[in-house]
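Reading group handout, session on sequence-to-structure problems. Before we discuss, look at one worked example. The prompt was deliberately terse, the way you'd type it at a terminal:

> structure Nuclear GTPase, germinal center associated

The input record follows.
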Amino acid sequence: MAEMKDVFGQEPHPVEDDLYKEPMRKRRKSDRDQRFRAFPSVEQSALKEYEKLESRTRRVLSNTYQKLIQSVFLDDSIPNGVKYLINRLLALIEKPTVDPIYIGLFGSTGAGKSSLINAIIQQAMFLPVSGESICTSCIVQVSSGCCAQYEAKIHLLSDQEWREELKNLTKLLHRTEELGREEADAWNRDEAVEEATWKLQMIYGNGAASKNYEELLRAKPKRKIPTSRVITLKAEEAEELSIKLDPYIRTQRRDWDGDAAEMHIWPLIKHVEVTLPKSDLIPEGVVLVDIPGTGDFNSKRDEMWKKQAIQSQREAVLERNEMIKLQRTRILKEKLKRKLPADFKVLEASDLVYTVSAQEYWQQALLTEEETEIPKLREYVRKRLLDKKRRTVTKYVTEAFGLLLLTDSFSSTQNLPNEHLHMSVLRRFAEEKVELLEKAIGQCFACMEQPLQEGVRTARTSYRCILRACLVRSKGNQGFHQTLKAVCLKNGIYASRTLARIDLNEALTQPIYDQIDPVFGSIFRTGKPTGSALMPHIDAFKHSLQEKMTEIGIRSGWKYDSCKKNFLIQEISAILGGLEDHILRRKRRVYESLTASVQSDLKLCYEEAAQITGKKACERMKDAIRRGVDRQVAEGMFERAQERMQHQFQQLKTGIVEKVKGSITTMLTLASSQGDGLYKELADVGSEYKEMEKLHRSLREVAENARLRKGMQEFLLRASPSKAGPPGTSL
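And the output record:
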């Protein structure tokens, strides 16, 4: 018991905020080799060079920022141009390094998600694997880091989140009328009721299910809940942490009667983050996400695999795997073609499917380690991370170089003849191009109108069939009463560990999505600026503006002031690069607006159905849902969903245009502001500019070095003797 109190009392370790303290730099330098252990030597060399480039760039930016701050520290007012520079420098300094790559594992219970993660990280039983009644009960994120120990952080629901959950659980269990014996038995067998009872019992003890919401709010939990809402576990070895972590993430049997403190926290667990020490197999920056399975649990699955392994020979397994890869690749590409444009790169990929086997990886009874394709999957993950690092650092150094170009020109350049005239021409040109861009965006989004209308017509004619399919169960209403109530309490959505996910809102809008998906995908594709594609129009706008800048620069004498021309060209890329991130963030909100609209319109319907209790409550709830949906459809529910999606598109267009106009106006004002009194004499940053210029040139050298190393490695592999064959074969 004392040990558990220590665990609950632990607070998260503070994170060092000052990135520029000398000890931090020393520690990061000494850890660099260890962080890249998961990569082959050729890839390690490239990563170290990119890491060095990024680190030196941040140092140059930091020095420049400090000089600018010191030069205006005592000023009563700071010129707008200087403010712009200071803010841009600070944004770049604080810009995070490569964002983690999240790899989610989805599948039904028992499909082998946890087993696959265990194989990838080379720890056979690190995460619990599905047995007769055991599986992962919450989202688990696994990554590697610079920590010396194995560490797990268990994140719990906040007070407010638990109150909301508690309110729904008590509503689910509350019965205001007596039921007949048969109905009561069915009610008690309801999966949602069993889970709600189990959760309350875990937190508050026996008898909790009979108490109301207010009583449970006043009740004291059986175990102390940490105020930080985070439980931290640490261990020297993987097996030790696995034992400590197991009770938190393992789904236990309902008839379990143990008294471990960890299990009494289970209903409060939101997700778990596991960090491994520096790994030879999983690179730092990659996060494997184990998603709990839902429904379709087949306890015979493992037995099936074993009988196949016994009666089949190695050649038959390899032939079967190859056949499955071809079939699955074809099916997957057909599905992706319905969602993605025809020229999307993933449709050309040869390796879309890996026939991985975690079980055979450990046993190697028939296949070699390579033939299980676990190493191939690791290699794919490494290459994704390396490519992302290369692109991110290249963009970062290029953007920093452009900013240093202008900063250095503040004190070193003079206003050129006819400067204002040339900048006015450039400003008018930019305004005209923004208008053309606005029209092009409008035309792109207008392509959604027809598929939306067709989808709405289909949804109106098919919604009753869809609703009937969602509300019918093979066993009738037995065991479905409270599950349906849980659906209504959650505004049409219910996710369970044993049943397939129920989402009435998504099901009702699916006919619309079937119509719009191909067009929606084509709008956000990359490629030539034709058709409904959005990003190519933005790229064309960028190139036309940069070409005009070069043209005006030649006429105005910018060949003697290349800093200004280069700054403008680089800054345009930075502005529109940030715009692309903005579009990707808004894209999801636009896409989900259909289901959000339907959910909002049906809210009162769900609330009404959730209040129904007593005899034949399940059928009466279904009737209430049907009536509510009929009423909303008659009042234009699907048409409102269409209008709300179109409104989201309009907001996206307005946001794009406003961001482009504002950023370009600020940039051009900055570039032409020497004669307007917006500049002042700043500290000399010539040395920082020269160093940044060297770093920018180094980008090409790093890329060339990486190509040379890769070519050398491929040559040596071709020249080396063949490797030993699989078991049972001879050379």
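Points for discussion. First: The two ends are 61 Å apart (CA to CA). Second: The chain has four domains: 37-95+373-411, 101-178+186-290, 313-372, 416-673.
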